[in-house]
């Protein structure tokens, strides 16, 4: 197994010992080239939202076309070590509303057809209990998982609304009932945990609640909103006064990823947008304010943060940066707070400058898991969900600039 170069490079980009250098040399040339590029730091040129949006959209289309499983889903990633992966149901689900939105903005019906192709595949792999599996499509064990079901529910609700298709409506109800009916009395979900993360409660499952809120909007009166709001209230019981959430990581809750922090905060914001209960707005703002304080002038946010909001990793998780940017935009527009919008713009610019708009089609327009690419999260990979959240954040910026929000 290749060692994690991000932990063994020195500040000048050299390697700590000969073995680390040998590991680097053994990387495929494509991976070595990306490492060399990233060690030079961010380029000075910011291509702007208008340039990266079509490039990311094109990359997502390639992720669907090149998926190793060739089923209509989106490849989990393009790896600089192993090439294209197979389809990933969880994130394919929430890519659907992004494509439907972009079909309108870009006046390109082919994007809506891509979304429909993906939904048809997701409906076909839904389990009898309404749930969806964790992991990539052939990963074992193949069992229904709360979190993955919630993310796919976001896409099913979007499809049911967009097309008024009975198949998507039925699948949406089945997934929403699976979540509603498997909830514990305190609001948390524990019955269908993922086998691909450390055991224990997960506050970032507020992002599952968002799926229930979308189902409620399409088909109100089934108890979907109540279930989602109960879980978010439980998550708030795990939030500290400084805005930090406990039990909020895939593996190490002492130093959660900005990715899961972004999940948690977005779910809380969506609870507020549905209910207008100020307790959710206050919670989201406490987290948003803390994140502004740790964001550098150039938009860099550490990839992991501890309970005191101190950096706990040397690299940036680009997915989390884009998710947090989206949350700042939403709060800034809700409250008229320029500091939130400014932070979002800086974060967006940071991520944009990591995106390669030239070179081969497999990574042109893709968004890396980490910057530098050797960072621990999504190491040497371009992730489909990093592309999705970055596209959403860049679109929000462009809409704001054009006065369309």
From TrEMBL:
Recorded superkingdom: Bacteria
InterPro entries linked: 6-hairpin_glycosidase_sf
Organism: Salinisphaera aquimarina
Name assigned to this protein: Squalene cyclase C-terminal domain-containing protein
């Amino acid at each position: 197994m290749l060692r994690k170069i991000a932990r063994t490079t020195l500040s000048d980009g050299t390697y700590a010992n000969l073995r680390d250098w040998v590991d680097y040399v053994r990387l495929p040339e494509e991976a070595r080239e990306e490492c060399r590029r990233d060690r030079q730091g961010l380029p000075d040129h910011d291509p702007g939202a208008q340039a990266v949006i079509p490039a990311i959209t094109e990359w997502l289309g390639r992720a669907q076309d090149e998926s190793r499983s060739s089923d209509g889903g989106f490849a989990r990633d393009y790896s600089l070590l192993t090439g294209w992966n197979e389809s990933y149901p969880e994130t394919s689900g929430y890519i659907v509303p992004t494509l439907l939105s972009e079909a309108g903005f870009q006046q390109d019906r082919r994007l809506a057809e891509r979304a429909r192709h993906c939904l048809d595949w997701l409906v076909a792999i839904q389990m009898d209990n309404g749930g969806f599996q964790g992991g990539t499509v052939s990963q074992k064990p193949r069992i229904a998982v709360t979190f993955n079901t919630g993310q796919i529910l976001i896409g099913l609700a979007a499809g049911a609304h967009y097309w008024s298709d009975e198949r998507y409506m039925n699948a949406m109800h089945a997934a929403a009932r699976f979540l509603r009916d498997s909830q514990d009395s305190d609001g948390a979900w524990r019955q269908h945990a993922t086998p691909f993360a450390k055991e224990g409660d997960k506050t970032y499952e507020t992002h599952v609640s968002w799926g229930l809120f979308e189902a409620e909007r399409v088909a109100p009166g089934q108890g979907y909103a109540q279930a989602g709001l109960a879980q978010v209230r439980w998550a708030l019981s795990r939030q500290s006064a400084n805005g930090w959430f406990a039990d909020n990581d895939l593996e190490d809750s002492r130093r959660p990823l900005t990715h899961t922090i972004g999940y948690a905060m977005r779910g809380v914001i969506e609870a507020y947008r549905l209910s207008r209960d100020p307790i959710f707005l206050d919670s989201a703002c406490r987290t948003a304010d803390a994140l502004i304080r740790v964001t550098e002038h150039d938009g860099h946010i550490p990839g992991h943060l501890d309970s005191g909001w101190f950096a706990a990793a040397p690299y940036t998780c680009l997915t989390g940066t884009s998710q947090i940017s989206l949350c700042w935009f939403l709060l800034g527009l809700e409250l008229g707070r320029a500091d939130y919008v400014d932070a979002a713009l800086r974060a967006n610019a940071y991520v944009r400058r990591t995106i390669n708009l030239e070179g081969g089609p497999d990574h042109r327009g893709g968004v890396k898991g980490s910057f530098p690419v050797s960072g621990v999260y999504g190491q040497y990979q371009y992730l489909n969900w990093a592309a999705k959240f970055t596209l959403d954040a860049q679109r929000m910026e462009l809409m704001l600039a054009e006065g369309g929000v």
